[in-house]
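Quick one: co-fold with zinc ion.
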Amino acid sequence: MNKQPNQENRSLQETPCPICGSQNFVWGRTVGESVSQWVYFRADEAGWGEGERLRACKCIDCKNIQLFTYD
Ligand SMILES: [Zn+2]
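Sure, here it is.
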């Protein structure tokens, strides 16, 4: 039986990249063309004006980007 890593006990910074397994991340905001434009997640049932701002975590090694909402 393989023991699965427990995601609950790991911070995002310590969780390896799902693509390459690296832990070299850089965190950042997600913005549109203008610095004042954020990128949002908006659920299908949410109305216009609703949504959650996204932040991004880029893997330095494979350049994969994962998106997260803020707490
Ligand atoms: Zn990676």
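If it helps, The longest strand covers residues 52-59.
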